[in-house]
Amino acid sequence: MSTSQERRSRAGIRDEYQLYIGGRWVPAADGGVTGSIDPSTEQPVTRVAVARAADVGRAVDAAAQAAPAWAALGWQERAARLHALADRVAEQAGELGRMDAVDGGIPVDGMAKDVANAVNTVRYFAGLASELKGHTIEAPGAALNMTLREPFGVVGRIVPFNHPIQFAGSGVAGPLAAGNTVVLKPGDTTPVSALRLAELAEGILPPGVLNVVTGGREAGEALVAHPRVPRIAFTGSVRSGQAVARGAAEHLKLVTLELGGKNPLIVFPDANIDAAAAAAVTAMNFNRGQAQSCGSPSRMLVHDAVRAAFVEAFVEKARALTIGDPLDPGVAMGPLAFAAHYERVLSYIERGTAEGARLVTGGTERPAGRTAGYFVAPTVFDDVTPDMAIARDEIFGPVVSVLGWTDEADALAVANELPVGLTANIWTNDLGRAIEFGKRVQAGYVWVNGAGQRPLGAPFGGYKLSGMGNENSLDELLSFTRTKNLSLQAAPGGVA
Question: What are the CA-CA distances from residue 198 to residues 20, 165, 252, 304 (Å)?
């Protein structure tokens, strides 16, 4: 048995996957397939169908046909089925973790958290479904005015490659709880666990309620443009989000976008430096996704009085992370998800050195013991200036830029100068300063002395080009409904 076959077998990955449409597994209309690559070995691990516009149309038709009956079940029955789905996902947590380890490079230890997040989010939206309530408005005489919350019908959900099962599970939970059916398009390089989610949903969700179409840009563009998909939810890069918004504009669709960021972590001289460095390593998400995370604070603004101590502590903790086969327990970091992204991250490391930043640790060489695979060790640049590309562009990998500062106003200006604003992290023991900076920093989610963890139900969304709308909250659930006003008037002569 070849290495690829052994790894596929350990992960429970099939030789080939078709599209999941209307409760059935079907090939792409043109028979197109593509190989899914194991980023640890750079070898094919399975073959996956490539959906074209016609396939997306079939999925939308199936979802539209199933929508009325799914909505008519009522919130209690939908919630019960979502709880049943969460149970089934939890039962298969180990298998799903191994799938994403092989297909996406995320270590199995980190995948335990990803699967738990998916399960908890499905349960959260199931429990929140009773909040799909309208209001009554005072009306004169024998009249009644009320609002109703109704599902859109078909929701297109496009999720990225970096946390496959977490984003697939949590991404469909809100739309389904609100009474919509879903056409899900997972990341084209990490599709396997989303397809497994569809398998797990069989017998729980009626045919057509959840459909999964795999493929690249054509599938995504077709889903966004389809006239019978009035609601689109997208997670991904700023550039892709802008394309989604343009594609949805013709039909005036409601679109929510959770996009990228170049997030600042601001360290004041009174902070506990060792704690700040440890939290920064955690927040970078090295050990759950190789820092392929939109919320990672890869732009660290550290006061010059403590910068050397912070860099030393951060580097020590980052170097202690174990890099290796993501299927092996105890491994903290695996490879980046796919070849083109790997080459992009390496190009930024080379650019940082060329622009004059000081490389403290990491670099373009594979970590020791890795002769293949898209592995990049935690890479830290010091003496970075705000004009450098590594300080301005979202690299979406394990590359950290440390910028020094002495004036608080200057630090705030640098933190806010970029066109994105997803998250920020402030480290100080001065509560007044924390509140002031927390209010003035331009980001949708701000931690003070935190490590990047978010409680379930806390709204998450960005400012500026980092997106529109909030996820993982009541706001998200309500965004999958539209408001209808119902004005009732007694017929003339109908009241004694």
Answer: 7, 11, 29, 51
